[in-house]
Structure formats: structure tokens, C-alpha cells
Write a structure and sequence with these properties.
about 30% strand, globular, 9 helices, alpha/beta
């Protein structure tokens, strides 16, 4: 927790004048992820859960499908490091060689391409979901109400996002928070992935809006239902429809907006 929190001296206006003091700020540092000893990407994130973060990131990128695809993963300076190296098994390296060369990489910050091309690229390496899970809307809302309980950083800084994964009985499997919403999801997924609990996940709850990248990551993790505090983007809805993933967000008066595959929220 100490690395995730920093402090800053600030001044603020009060009814009687100006006051000064220390304020908690969420930390933001780079995490370099190396695959086969070669730099793959640098992510700005909140320190913590580096190994899980790297594993979840690699799953989302399509570099791994199973924990056994990873021969070794570790930080260069122990568990708390700004560099994590992932070593893939030889059979997996051969299978994802185009991704390692970045020839098949689907950039999350691409420009100059249209939504249809994004969807077509994603469908090349993410298959549509077929899970027939059923979750009562009121139970999904109850899971959303629990999200704040997994956000100690937010309570201190008011500046973090969170992701929580629930099983079919709506028991929490893993949760994480980070300054970035993508990072929070990668960390939560990485924890479940390394614990071999990812196949048990049925519901993902997010504190943020839903972008198409988050839908892509959820689909790679084979999570059938995604519920967020804020609304999805139009492209997120299109991607979710193509991947047969249920997408919902909170509405007024304890209701839900369900954008795709509503049968799972019966």
C-alpha cells in the first residue's frame, strides 16, 4: 500500500481563508513488460500486483491461453519491480510468433481504422462466447454495490478504478484497483488466471465506463457478463454483440441498462 500512495502538500480555500496540509495521491509509475527478454510494452499503472498484472496483460494480448503457457514470470528486483519478464514455453512461443513480432498486434491506441476493422481484427483471435449462465438482475446489482469494498485506494485518494470477478454463486474470486481501468482489469484477471480460477468467473463488475478494449479483455478471459457503473461506448457495444458477451451498466432507480445478450440477465 505504501508504494501505491504518495503525499502532496496542497492549499485550499475555506470559508475563513486559505489552509494548507498534506493530501493522499494515488501513485503512478511505469511497468515495463518483457516477453522472452525483449521489451513488449510499457504501461503507466499504480504499483502493486505486478506479476498478476503481467499475466493478465499477456492473456488479454493473446500471448497466453493457459497458465501452463508461462514457463516463468518474475520481477527483475523481486516481487515489487517496475520491470516484469515473462518467459513462454517453447511450444507457445512458436504459436504466437507473429504476436511477438507485433505483426498481429491489435493496438489499443490505433488510429486511422474504422470500427468494423477493429471488430474483424479482434474476431481473428477471440472467439464468441457460448456460456449460458443466468444471473438475476438484482443479484448483479448487489455485486455492483460491493465494489466499493474492494477500493481502499479510492477511499484514500478518490482516484482509482476497480474490477471484481465473481463466480456462478456470486462469490468474489478476485479484485484489484489501479489508476487505470485497463490495469485494474488485467490485475484482477491475472490473479484468477494464475490461481486457475478464471474458468469459474461468470460476472465482471467495473467502476468505469466500458471501452471496446475492456470488452476485448473480458472476452479473452471468457467472462460472459460485464456490468459497469458507467455506460459503454458505441464501439464497445458493437464488439460485445459480435463476441456474444452480455454488456450492462447501472441506470437510475436501481435499474440496469442491458445492451447485448440480455438473456443472461434474466
Amino acid at each position: 500500500m505504501t508504494r501505491a500512495i504518495s503525499h502532496s502538500t496542497v492549499s485550499w480555500q475555506t470559508g475563513t481563508g486559505t489552509a494548507a496540509g498534506d493530501l493522499n495521491l494515488i501513485a503512478e509509475e511505469p511497468l515495463a513488460i518483457r516477453v522472452q527478454g525483449i521489451p513488449y510494452g510499457v504501461i503507466m499503472r499504480t504499483p502493486g500486483d505486478e506479476i498478476a498484472h503481467a499475466a493478465g496483460f499477456c492473456l488479454g494480448e493473446g500471448l497466453v491461453d493457459d497458465p501452463d503457457d508461462i514457463a516463468a514470470v518474475g520481477g527483475c528486483d523481486g516481487t515489487e519491480a517496475n520491470v516484469v519478464t515473462v518467459t513462454l514455453r517453447e511450444s507457445r512461443r512458436e504459436k504466437v510468433a507473429p504476436l511477438l513480432d507485433r505483426r498481429g498486434f491489435v493496438s489499443q491506441t490505433s488510429c486511422g481504422i474504422c470500427g468494423r476493422e477493429v471488430i474483424d481484427d479482434i474476431l481473428r483471435f477471440v472467439s464468441p462466447l457460448t456460456d449460458q449462465v443466468r444471473i438475476r438482475p438484482q443479484d448483479a446489482l448487489a455485486c455492483a454495490d460491493r465494489l466499493s469494498g474492494f477500493q481502499p485506494l479510492r477511499r484514500r485518494t478518490r482516484a482509482s478504478h476497480a474490477a471484481a470477478l465473481f463466480d456462478g454463486d456470486l462469490a468474489v474470486i478476485s479484485a484489484a484497483e489501479d489508476v487505470g481501468r485497463h490495469n485494474a482489469l488485467d490485475k484482477a484477471v491475472g490473479k484468477a488466471f494464475l490461481d486457475r480460477r478464471l474458468p469459474d468467473v461468470r460476472l465482471l463488475v467495473l467502476s468505469s465506463r466500458i471501452s471496446y478494449e475492456l470488452v476485448q479483455k473480458a472476452a479473452r478471459a471468457r467472462i460472459p457478463v460485464v456490468l459497469a457503473v458507467s455506460r459503454p461506448t458505441s464501439l464497445a457495444v458493437e464488439v460485445a454483440e459480435a463476441l456474444r458477451l452480455t454488456l450492462a451498466c447501472l441506470a437510475k432507480d436501481s435499474d440496469l441498462y442491458v445492451f447485448t445478450c440480455p438473456e443472461r440477465l434474466a
